[in-house]
Design a protein that fits this description.
By secondary structure, the protein is an all-alpha fold. It has nine helices and no strands. It has one domain: Oxo-4-hydroxy-4-carboxy-5-ureidoimidazoline decarboxylase (UraD-like). The relative contact order is 0.17.
Length: 179
């Protein structure tokens, strides 16, 4: 992990750091507290701080974080040139990379994911959030089906844990300068 990127991030003006962090997680409470926690001694220091913040987020904050994620199996398209400068391309790139294990050509799994996503949303009232990095569509579908058995309050705890994992992956990328 390059110290140049960490130093650059630590030295960003607060509004720029906040925007970069909102690309990682759309929960403003998280991004504000992460911005206020600078400077970070290392990426791992930032990730530990992130985990602590996520552990204390309210359900409302968690719902805001969910708003920044596409459904599993529905990778967003890259934005047009007009959008490319607003951080959208970074977020879309991260989401696409994280869901790269969902094979676009596997229509059976994609259809099953779409159906299970709908069932999940009807049961819990929000999208299914999972750290998809390194997982196949089949694995993500099995996890989703297993989580449908959770009680709503237990599921929010699972969402919190998955958000911590996603934020860690994205912070590593942000602080390494990798889009």
């Amino acid at each position: 992990m390059g110290t140049e990127e960490l130093t650059r991030f630590n030295q960003l003006p607060a509004p720029a750091a906040l925007r970069a962090l909102l690309d990682c997680c759309s929960a403003s409470t998280w991004a504000e507290q992460m911005t206020a926690g600078r400077p970070y001694a290392s990426a791992e220091d930032a990730i530990r701080r992130s985990g602590t913040i996520v552990a204390a987020l309210t359900v409302t904050d968690l719902a805001r974080a969910l708003a920044g994620h596409p459904r599993i199996g529905e990778r967003p398209d890259l934005p047009g040139p007009a959008e490319a400068g607003d951080g959208t391309s970074r977020v879309v790139g991260w989401s696409r990379r994280e869901q790269s294990g969902v094979d676009a050509g596997d229509t059976t799994t994609k259809r099953a994911l779409a159906e299970a996503n709908l069932e999940y949303e009807q049961r819990f009232g929000h999208i299914y959030l999972v750290c998809a990095a390194g997982r196949t569509g089949t694995e993500l579908l099995a996890l989703l089906r297993g989580r449908l058995r959770n009680e709503p309050e237990d599921e929010w705890q699972v969402v919190r844990t998955e958000l911590q994992k996603i934020n860690a992956v994205r912070l590593r990328r942000l602080l390494a300068g990798a889009l």
